[in-house]
Design brief:
single chain, 215 residues, alpha+beta, 2 domains, three-stranded antiparallel beta sheet, two-stranded antiparallel sheet, globular
């Protein structure tokens, strides 16, 4: 099996999409020798970007998220929506995007502040999905419990998998984030984020730790 075929297999196992963590963790299942080279991660990136550049097999759909070339976000509609005709599906998807703006307003009104910075200015807050939008079905995309309110820096750290949390509010920091930048940001291992709203978000956090966080 080639690297391209192995990447395809991993994406198919994950509904047609994958991020770097999923690829790095699951490729060995289909390409057992992949980690024998010290540069294996660079080879994976080179193969993926080569295919994307040539409009073959894969495409980029979000920061650090990639998909099969024929992947359609409508694949993540709920089962009852999939039974409708394609026009209704696309209308449902557009409506979901509109409702995302309403979700942001609701969750910011509810949670009010970033648990790290305690910033409470709506203009400086982001409704940050725990289970990323691309991996969520329409119900999960609009679930208030699938969202944290974070200021932009911490939203970026969380979105890129550079931080995550245990279900007891303990901060996890990726080894991909340097000690220098950790100190500049003001975060440290085993830090307890007291204001982080965990209740009813545990299953989404489990997904984030397993599929997004770069451990």
């Amino acid at each position: 099996m080639t690297k391209v075929e192995a990447i395809k297999k991993v994406m198919l196992d994950n509904s047609g999409i994958a991020n770097w963590k999923i690829l790095y963790n699951e490729l060995e299942k289909y390409y057992p020798d992949i980690k024998k080279s010290d540069e294996w991660q660079a080879w994976v990136r080179w193969v993926l970007y080569r295919e994307i550049k040539n409009w073959k097999n894969f495409k980029k759909i979000d920061d650090w998220i990639f998909a099969l070339l024929d992947y359609d976000e409508n694949n993540l509609l709920l089962d009852d929506e999939k039974n409708k005709d394609i026009i209704t599906q696309r209308k449902s998807f557009v409506n979901t995007r509109i409702k995302q703006g309403q979700l942001r307003n609701k969750v910011i009104k509810d949670l009010k502040i970033c648990p790290f910075t305690k910033i409470n200015d709506n203009r400086l807050l982001i409704a940050s999905h725990i289970k990323p939008w691309a991996f969520s079905d329409n119900k999960e995309r609009l679930d208030l419990k699938n969202v944290f309110v974070l200021s932009p820096l911490f939203d970026k750290l969380f979105d890129r998998g550079l931080i995550s949390f245990w279900n007891n509010k303990t901060l996890l920091i990726s080894r991909w984030l340097s000690e220098f930048n950790r100190k500049r940001i003001g975060i440290f291992e085993w830090q307890i984020i007291d204001l982080l709203p965990i209740d009813w978000r545990e299953s989404y956090l489990n997904f984030h730790r397993e599929k997004v966080f770069l451990d």
